[in-house]
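ok trying again, last paste got cut off:
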Amino acid sequence: MKDKVILITGGTSGIGLAAARLFLARGARVVLAGRSADRGAEAVKQLCQYAPADHMVFFSGDVSRPADCEALAARAVRHFGRIDVLVNSAGIYLERALEDMEEADFDRLMAVNVKGSYFMAKYALPELKKREGCSIVNVSSDAGLQGNYLCSAYCASKGAVTLFTKALALELAPWNIRVNCICPGDIATPLTEAQLAAAPSREQALREMSSVYPLGRIGTAEEAASLIVFLASAEAGFVTGAAWSVDGGLTA
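nice, full thing came through this time. structure:
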């Protein structure tokens, strides 16, 4: 990974930020992308504990807008001269019954989770085609492999990410560009913490969330991020079109 350039959407928190730390530890350069400039600045400040400041940069953008996807890819190339790995980690979660779903919420869910991954890949692709060993890692979900209660729209979006991964792997194989996705279960991230904090008892909510996992707990951002780094590395050189579960046995 030394001197490779990694573009990570949703890179200012959770799994994306954890992946950035691990990539930097391997000597990579990292481009973080997110909507909030304040969170971007805070993420860069945190990451400076692990690597020199000139090994990272933050650019703001909303992946639900294809123009922003194009701009993010272009800015990454202007700053570091290349893109070797794209990590599509930007995503939103919405738990809602079909009868209660508003069109605007449905559109936003699809725009971030599906459209964002699709158009980030489109605009990173010309650069990925320029050299050997490039790859794309998408962040799907256990909900991209199975149905989840009151999550029909979210499952539809993550199911799309999983099959997009497989189809794109076939499309890009002639250029030796590998495309894989990870399918995490519940992971300890700020998003999950917000869900727990909204419950009457955080501790009880965490116990209930953990109880469905055969390993008896939810995962950590670092555990999910480690799989991203592996799939992006030469160690996974014969792996493409795969959906890797990181869910404590939930989908076993």
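cool. Helices lie at 14-25, 37-47, 66-80, 103-128, 152-172, 190-197, 202-211, 221-232. The mean pLDDT is 97.
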